[in-house]
Design goal:
Blueprint lengths: L1 H14 L8 H7 L4 E4 L2 E4 L4 H27 L5 H18 L1 H8 L7 H7 L2 H11 L6 H11 L5 H31 L1 H4 L2 H20 L2 H8 L5 H9 L1 H7 L36 E3 L16 E7 L4 H17 L4 E7 L9 H11 L5 E3 L4 H5 L7 E5 L5 E6 L4 H15 L25 E2 L17 E5 L9 E10 L4 E3 L3 E27 L4 E31 L2 E8 L1
Parallel strand pairs: 4-5, 5-6
Antiparallel strand pairs: 1-2, 3-6, 4-7, 7-8, 9-15, 10-11, 11-12, 11-13, 13-14, 13-15
């Protein structure tokens, strides 16, 4: 029930936000009382037309949100293909409203239902389906939770309820506008006598929306308008009810229902239920003949489960601590298990993960959780995340993100002594904690169209091949492009020849995740130059390692054949 209420509230807030302004003309006109001529007579459209438009929007939004990313990932198709299909449908339907001959062609597949019935439909449901595919509401905590849950491939009843309630919440304000459009057209005689003009106006509005979506006009308009719902969205995001309902994805099962009894980063041992099983693993690395590790077989030993991804900068700073714990306590009763949960598609390849394991000196077993099955079973949302399990198989400590290493190690030592009171423990490990202060560094910057962050250029940043140029004034903590680039779902690459990236940052350490083959030239703000040879699969390359966080700027010359995924900062 909490999920449904949260979904409805989140949807209602989104439904009155500036995000919906670009679709309002289409909703208003296509939901109106359009009529059609049949045997020389004007036949009014069904009174259900506004409801069909909104029903189509709710259905397509729900299906795209829940199944779109999973299906496209299985088919290896670009993430935004559904958006482009929706845009194409808008253009076709809009053109059909303007050109009667095209409309008759579109209606032929439905003629078996009777011509009068088809004419009265007026494509209301089809319009809603197209709008749902292209409608991109302001991403709030509810929508983010839906997308994360869907991307794991574990869509439960709670996720479905949250998605449907969110879609209904968004649809309620839009339905009001659709009904208002119908009411205005029915009551004003001048509108009733201009049936043909209304159809043309609706068609023009739909085509204009499609063209605007192609060139990201709605996003530009939203940036110009004040977001009057921002305080409401922030209040919803910060509320304790939302945190409780959406934490760890909200995917609760009998196996993991007690995990929320643990407090993140606690300095004392807690009791949080029997450890969930490790499941859905595609392959095991660092085990004899690739054999799987069964938690039940490790009873009597202390187990540390570490969720990580090899290109994640946060994990890279955390791994030295985990490796040190493994080396120090392995023969004293500690088993470390790495659960490699990929953030990028390239992190799913065993060869890439094996190279990362070698780079970090990892000798403990690593499971390839490519479908995020174990990630979901542990209700996890973070890279890295540490789950400490005692000799009886009970989860006793959870720590999300970086830091808290001293407390985690102290609890490891306590559990080892509980399991074997005669154990002789050496001194604690002495690995420097390099966790940066919160907010002191630029946040991770992605260049793929599915999750672009920190773009500071003047042109719209979108998938496809486009010409970019550096802005005269580039914001802090941002990147900009110069030259012709092809932006894919997860990376950007120069179309031909070479192109440039300008990166403004606050950090002591700067790294880039790139792949392909070529030589990247890096110049700092003082003109100092370095060359980085890129050869092979995606990996992290260091650009800078300083003693303290400071502002700086890099200009990178990227050759064709090199794919740039992200920049990370420490």
């Amino acid at each position: 029930m909490d999920l449904i209420i949260i979904g409805l509230l989140g949807g209602l807030i989104t439904g009155i936000s500036p995000c919906i302004l670009p679709v309002l003309p289409v909703i208003f006109l296509t939901g109106g009382a359009q009529s059609a001529k049949f045997d020389g007579q004007v036949v009014p459209a069904k009174r259900s037309r506004p409801y069909l438009v909104i029903a189509g929007l709710v259905l397509s939004f729900t299906l795209v949100t829940l199944g779109g990313s999973l299906l496209l990932g299985l088919l290896n198709l670009p993430q935004d293909i559904i958006r482009w299909v929706g845009i194409a449908v808008l253009v076709i339907i809009g053109t059909g409203l303007i050109v009667p001959r095209l409309e008759r062609i579109l209606e032929r597949p439905f003629q078996r239902f009777g011509q009068r019935e088809v004419k009265n439909r007026g494509s209301g449901f089809g319009v809603g389906l197209a709008l749902g595919a292209v409608f991109v509401p302001c991403a709030g905590p509810v929508l983010a939770a839906i997308i994360v849950a869907g991307s794991t491939g574990r869509i439960g009843l709670g996720t479905i309820a949250l998605t449907v309630s969110f879609a209904i919440g968004v649809a309620v304000p839009l339905l009001v506008f659709a009904l208002a459009g119908r009411g205005v057209i029915e009551r004003i005689r001048a509108f009733r006598s201009k049936e043909r003009a209304l159809r043309i106006a609706a068609g023009i509005a739909m085509i204009a929306l499609a063209v605007g979506l192609v060139f990201n006009v709605p996003q530009a308009l939203q940036r110009l308008l004040p977001d009057y719902t921002s305080p409401l969205q922030q209040e919803l995001a910060d509320s304790e009810e939302v945190s409780d309902a959406l934490d760890l994805g909200g995917l609760v099962t009998d196996e993991n229902k007690d995990l929320d009894k643990c407090t993140n980063g606690a300095e004392e041992l807690e009791s949080c239920g029997t450890a969930p099983s490790i499941k859905g693993i595609e392959q095991w690395l660092n085990t004899p003949d690739g054999q799987a590790v069964d938690l039940a077989s490790l009873r009597g030993k202390v187990v540390l489960i570490d969720f990580w991804a090899y290109s994640c900068i946060n994990c890279q700073r955390s791994l030295p601590h985990v490796v040190a714990w493994d080396e120090t306590y392995r023969d004293l009763g500690l088993d470390v298990i790495g659960i490699h949960s990929p953030e990028y598609a390239f992190e799913k390849y065993p060869g890439n993960v094996a190279a990362g394991i070698a780079d970090f000196g990892i000798e403990y077993p690593v499971a390839l959780d490519n479908n995020l099955a174990t990630w979901t079973n542990y209700r996890n949302r973070y890279w890295p995340a540490h789950y400490l399990i005692d000799a009886e198989g009970t989860v006793r400590h959870i720590s999300f993100g970086e830091g808290n290493y001293a407390a985690t190690e102290q609890l490891i030592r306590e559990l080892l002594q509980d399991a074997d009171p005669d154990v002789q423990l050496p001194g604690a490990t002495d690995v420097v904690d390099e966790t940066p202060d919160v907010g002191s560094t630029t946040r991770e910057t992605f260049l793929g169209s599915s999750k672009d962050i920190n773009f500071g250029g003047e042109a719209a940043y979108r998938a496809g091949t486009h010409e970019y140029s550096f802005p005269q004034a580039q914001p802090d903590d941002s990147f900009a492009l110069d030259g012709e680039w092809t932006v894919e779902t997860q990376f950007a690459t120069p179309t031909e020849g070479s192109a440039r990236i300008r990166l403004n940052y606050h950090a002591a350490e700067v790294r880039m995740v790139v792949a392909g083959e070529g030589e990247v030239i890096v110049r700092d703000e003082n003109g100092r130059e370095q060359s980085i040879r890129v050869d092979g699969t995606p990996r992290s390359y260091g650009l800078q390692q300083a003693d303290a966080v400071a502002a700086g700027s890099f200009t990178l010359e990227i050759p064709a054949g090199v794919q740039v995924y992200s920049f990370t900062f420490g």
